[in-house]
Amino acid sequence: MQIITLTTDFGLQDYYVAATKGAILNQIPSANIIDISHSIKPFNVAEAVFQLKCCYHTFPAGTIHIIGVDSEPVFSETNPSFPMVMLFKDQYFISNDNGFFGTFLEDDVPEKLYKLEKPTAIEDYHKFPTKNTFIPLAAMVSNKIDLSEICVESYTFKKAFIQKPTIEHNRMLGNVVHIDAYGNIITNISKKDFDRFGPNTPFTIFYVNKTYFIDTISKTYNDVAMGEKVAIFNSSDLLEIAINKGANGSTGGANNLFGVRVGNVITIEFHPPGSAKDIHSLF
Predict the structure, then answer these.
(1) Which helix (H) or strand (E) holds 6?
(2) Domain boundary at 126, 153, 180, which?
(3) What does the pLDDT read at residue 216?
(4) Is residue 127 domain-shared with residue 60, that is, in the same domain?
(5) Is the pLDDT of residue 270 over 80?
(6) Quick check: is 77 in a domain?
(7) 74: pLDDT strictly greater than 90
(8) What pLDDT, in 10s, does the model give residues 127-170?
(9) 33, 61, 133, 229: least buried by Cβ within 10 Å?
(10) Which pLDDT score is estimated for 192?
(11) Which residues contact 161 (CB under 8 A, 6 or more apart)?
(12) How many domains does the structure of the chain reveal?
């Protein structure tokens, strides 16, 4: 059984997801299709990277991940982009070379990377490329057909812009990178970066402005009373600010209650001994 995941900006209103799945089942009848997300903002490669990086490691070796975001190839002498297949940590990733690979990899190196440069190698190459180009490539991978028959091995790829935390003396500046369905505020501040300031160092997390702050990291949402704000490092080890038992559509998620949006700055100020007497001295 071949596991294939789909991450697209198709949404669920139109036939695109169904057509893609139908094509997969026609070409790979044994496929087990897993939806990661079809709600990526149109052409937002960084958001696709975020969703996939949070879960790809939970899939078994040999899984094929299809990323149908900004998937149309660009034939340009100055800035071309072609479909590519990457082997990384025993899993396959198929996307247009639109910045996905470089952003996903960061400082890592792929095991193999193939580029499809021949527009006539696959019929209907330009039309609905996620269905008509990426799926035939996935079928070749699944059937263990040598990709070099229609692709060339590549060593270069583009990188999309993605915000990284800024680490300063006793301060870290991060950004909101995602708001989930509960209204939880997910940042790009990792536990690894947070821990660089040492264990047991007092801190204050500010969001929106200095009116809203948290100075405790909890292990679970239920460490605080229902309706109270809470900060945790989530299953992806990213700093998350939430309202316990709050959710958009019920009592209101943290993003609505605090007026936080994707891209907003989150500031953490660390207070080593002697830097501040108490929280009130910060205002």
Answers:
(1) strand 3-8
(2) 153
(3) 93
(4) yes
(5) yes
(6) yes
(7) no
(8) 899 999 999 999 999 999 999 989 999 888 887 767 788 998 89
(9) 61
(10) 92
(11) 46, 99
(12) 2
Q: Give the pair of three-digit tokens for residue 209.
A: 């402005």
Contacts of 1 (CB under 8 A, 6+ apart): 30, 31, 32
Q: What pLDDT, on the 0 to 100 scale, is given for residue 164?
A: 85
State the greatest distance between any 2 C-alpha atoms of the chain, in Å, as a whole number.
69
Which residues is 96 bridged to in the sheet? 83
For residue 185, CA distances in Å to 62, 93, 202 come to 33, 28, 22
Two structure tokens written together for 137? 């490539």
The predicted structure's pLDDT at residue 274: 60
| Average pLDDT value over all residues in the chain | 89
Q: Return the structure tokens found at 161.
A: 């812009």
Residues 6+ apart with CB under 8 A from 26: none
Does residue 129 share a domain with residue 212?
Answer: no
Which CATH number is 19's domain given?
3.40.50.10790
Distances (CA, A) of 274 to 123, 137, 214, 277, 278: 68, 60, 20, 7, 10
Cα–Cα distance, 113 to 121 (Å, whole number): 18
